Amino acid sequence: MARKASAAKAASAKAKTPGGGKNVGPVRRTFAPWNDPAAKPFILFENVTKRFGDFVAVKNLTLGIHEREFFSLLGPSGCGKTTLLRMLAGFETPSEGRILLDGQDVSTVPPYRRPVNMMFQSYALFPHMNVADNIAFGLKQDKMPKGEIADRVDEMLKLVKLEPFKTRKPHQLSGGQRQRVALARSIAKRPKVLLLDEPLGALDKKLREQTQFELTDLQQQLGLTFLIVTHDQEEAMTVSDRIAVMDHGEIVQVATPAEIYEYPNSRYVADFIGDINLIEGTVASVRSGKVTVDTPDAGKLVVQQDIAADVGQKAWIAIRPEKVRIGLGKPAARTPNVMRGEVWDIGYLGDVSTYHVRLPAGTTVKALQANATRLVERPITWDEQVYLSFAPDGAVVLLS
Amino acid sequence: MAAHQDRAGRRLVILVPYLWLLVFFLVPFLIVVKISLSQIAISMPPYIPTFSLAEGWAGLVDAFRQFSFDNYLWLTEDDLYIRSYLSSLWIALVSTLIALLVGYPIAYGMARAPSHWRPTLLMLVILPFWTSFLIRVYAWIGILKPEGLLTVILQTVGLLSPDEQVRILNTNTAVYIGIVYSYLPFMVLPLYSALEKMDGSLLEAAEDLGCHPLKAFWVITFPLSIPGVVAGCFLVFIPAVGEFVIPDLLGGSQTLMIGKTLWAEFFSNRDWPVSSAVAVILLLVLIVPIVAFQRAQQRAHEREAG
Amino acid sequence: MNRGPSWFNISSIVLGFAFLYLPIVILVIFSFNESRLVTVWAGFSTKWYGELFRNQGLMDAAWVTARVAFVSASIATVLGTLAAITLVRFGRFHGRTLFSGMVYAPLVMPEVITGLSLLLLFVAINFDRGFWTVVIAHITFSMCFVAVVVQSRLVTFDTSVEEAAMDLGCPPAKTFFVITLPIILPAVISGWMLAFTLSLDDLVIASFTTGPGATTLPMKIYSQVRLGVTPEINAVCTILIALVTIGVVTASLITKHQEVERKRAEAAAVQG
Asked: What number of CA atoms fall less than 13 Å from residue C156's CA on the CB side?
């Protein structure tokens, strides 16, 4: 666990994460060019700033994305993620800095001459053209021979399983089908990079989950570089190789989904991805990979982590609810991190229950427990005094 | 009881405007048809037969016997009428096309203007429509007449020698200008609403797929604005065919338009039966574009709903 | 989406509006001309306005026109609103097709035909022509415009509000006056304004249906215009333009103000 929390802050493609040393969560495939210092990013935003009048949408941002990567830009609305995407598509020109695509500066190339294609949030299907004409549109612009266009259109229709809808107009399709047409149209030209702006935002939950997996399949099958903009953290977690979390025009953290979840570098990221408990305190000691934080709620708590922190510095212990154990009796003596509190509320979700426990100094900690037994036999109830505990390697200490 | 009251109230709501329109719109038109089948007479009213309810059924039958299609035959005999109809259609068509050419760039510019300007621009297009039609036509007389403002300006600029004058007033050119000017808002508004509704990301998508912006106009913007083009053209064409004030004030003696012919037939010749026949035929001529227009509108609504 | 207005767009807007407004502006300017010539500027003067007010015929015509417009617009608004409700709310009933045809037809009917047919009706039933015949004629065509304006508002009306009122025990007629009417009122008012200006404007229909003592302003203007352009007529036109402009601009400013207030209240509610 030789990770430095500050390392992930580097908003660069060459994340200074020492590779290999730490294997967090199941890795989808062994594809991690960002860990290779020799690898050149395929897309490079270099000190890019974008202003709209007085408003700074993107602030001096540097980011590298590798070939065949499935990269997500994640953040709340107005964080600059869409602007970044639109600059790569060519709809906006950077106010400062430059954008390199495969080593070429494309900052001022108009959109119709860029080898990137975009799938629009609204799908932007041409309402007066049928499905086949929509898909063929980009190919016709390239003056591709008619026969080849027809073949490519058929191939695309097959890829997105829309062969029977070839001659339908967009308004005769369901939301999911429109989404597929938009996808087929944007990959028909075999772009070097596919940009997806909230691609699944308009679909309902079930269809969204299904489509997420189809997208990742498609991406691997075609070997394209995907850059996706989303505000849905679950979507980003599911599909991405790496995620960049953005806030106010800046990148807060770039890492793989598992790293982002397990090792957020700030309260902002921790809070944005999933549910997390934050217990405030001051750093009491830092030594040999162990940080002790003195908290008003539970006294000294220990976290196993390499971190450059000063004693007396303000810090937050961040721990996911599912990593907090809850019990009526005192846990085994060797458990270092024990907190006492009163059950404030219980959220019963069927498979799991969330216990909201109020600590002495007022912080509420959530503990997630699988409901291994039937409801009637549930031992912990409202207003009861309980013990909470967590393992030193289950939490992270955040300094910002 | 309450339900009974509701039904009575409902019936009243329908009945009042229904009866009004029957009495003052449909019945008058049937009278026009009837008089168009009558003969001119030197009396008041200046046509026969007249029938009154006092004569009962026999009187009605008697009146029907006297009906004739002479007035309609007359319309075909004197080529003044046919030329008037054709010339009305032609002038309306040319004016409509000019209005489209003038109105499209305006509507396009408005639809692409920053969104906080658009309500103001829209109001500026509608405002002339609220000011009197007559005044707007009148305003052009001062500009177009031989010793008018256009002559003065052209002479000052040097495009016209001091002894020359523009000859536009009392020609068909002046009528075109008048119609285009008066009906331009009717062209611009539907075009604007069609263009403004258009999703801007469609053009971005076209560009993204390699289409040059100028070409994107012809393959995306224009086809999508066709409902607006159709609506605008009908809204200019239909009233322009029956126009009276513009050809009367701006046109010359050789300007033939059916509205003017009807007016003259009625007020100068006092031939009520023939002017009624002219009106009936004018309406028949207009029914084709009116029905076509309503079909187009209905299709547009359905498209929006679907 | 807005990459700033292009030069093409700006120039087409500027040229378009110049075309729409220059003739009117010129007319207004020359109404203040000292000289009787309407093409040569001879200094500023308001004397034509003075002469206008001494022209009894013109003043009478203006008074007739204002009365006709007010009465016909008011009745047309009531009838047009009823027609709109019938079309939007009452679904199918006997003669609906004929009714909707009669509502839409006057919108596209050439004025010469509307005028002629009404005149023939009045003659046939031996109705004395004058003030009331013009009013009836104006009601008939302007109620259809009112119906269209109110109808477009009613179509977007959320009927669950009415259902809520009735659910709470409000009978239909009362529901209309306390719920529906206040909500559609802006459309009804703009319908009235439209009817008023249509009546104010109308030359052709009034010429057919008028009788002794009911000469309207457009008829008066028309008879003088045929004789040539005069500064008095420019002055009348300027006054009419000013009145209409003030009316329309005020109405749109009020609407805009209400909109801004509503948005501000909404923003405050969201923040609070």
From this structure: 7
